[in-house]
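Hi team, as promised in this morning's meeting, here are the two structures we talked about. I've kept the exact order from the run log so nobody has to guess. The first one is mostly here for context; it's the second one we should focus on when we meet again. Sequence first, then the predicted structure tokens.
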Amino acid sequence: MSPDVEKVNIAYIDAANLDRALKDLNWKLDYKKFRVWLSDKYKIERAYIFIGLIPKYKDLYTHFQECGFTVIFKEVVYQGGGIPKGNCDTDLIMQAMADAYEGSLQKALIISSDGDYAPLVKKLQSREQFLAILSPAPAKKCSILLKRTDAPIAYINDQRGLLEEIK
């Protein structure tokens, strides 16, 4: 690490996991409020959103950027019935580990309920570079694998009054 690299708190957001959980809870996130809340609550200076790239959603991607998120795209493949699949798990993990090992990561906030991130959480905990898990799903639907890490877990739904998009 170069001595002039500043360490910052970084949020890593699994967009599909976030979107799916909030749809199940029947509310829509105000991303502008969310970005400000992440800065205020967790001192997040950089927030990555990992998402599959589908051209018809270009306005959504622009919106994320305007709200202060860095959008990391995953190439999408189409399953039977034309259902898009842009599994971003490995991209998120690789970015977090690159930030950790290259020296720019102070503490990581993982925004997902997916147990696939448990090994990442454990590794970052062992390096004292882990802040918390912010689960989009309620406690009963957050992965047991994440819970077994003994990492702090907060639930986005607890902030619905602050973060819900009001039309």
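And here is the second protein, the one for discussion:
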Amino acid sequence: MAKVKVATCWLDCCSGCHMSFLDIDEAIIDIAKQVEFTASPITDIKEFTPVDVGIIEGAVSNVHDEEVAKNMRANCKILMVWGDCACFGGICAMRNLFSKEDVLRRYYIETESTIKGKIPSSEDIPALLDQVKPVNQVVKVDCYVPGCPPTSKAILYALTELLQGRIPVLPSEMMRFD
């Protein structure tokens, strides 16, 4: 039987969701028997080719994030998002309380440790969007695994459901944090 092809990426986030994935411990061996990871921050392959499942961690904060989300969606049959940043905007969306100009000015010019600061400008630096967005405000999302970060148990459950041909819906007991 052919392995399920999976691509993952992270956008504006802390990478905690991918760390929770790695925390599934020995279950990762069983997953690896059924899955072929293509593009992933773990493999450091960044080009998306067609896959069965795409997984995004992180919010959409700049034009590059937006392009990556659209590219992932275009190259996967099912798109899953991990974590509160991807599901809801998370902590990254706190930036939405301010204009992007105010954020850039504070960060590059007004910080207490900055001397003669200036806002960088380069075609290599992706432009910030006016507002940070959850992934579903940019592309269609098929399933959600919320949490900051989601527990390894929730990620394993969602992956197992997908591998059994079902779109995962997390049970309520996985939506509680102790």
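Starting points for discussion:
Strands lie at 4-10, 35-37, 51-57, 60-62, 76-82, 128-133, 143-145.
The domain at 4-96+129-170 is CATH 3.40.50.700 (Rossmann fold).
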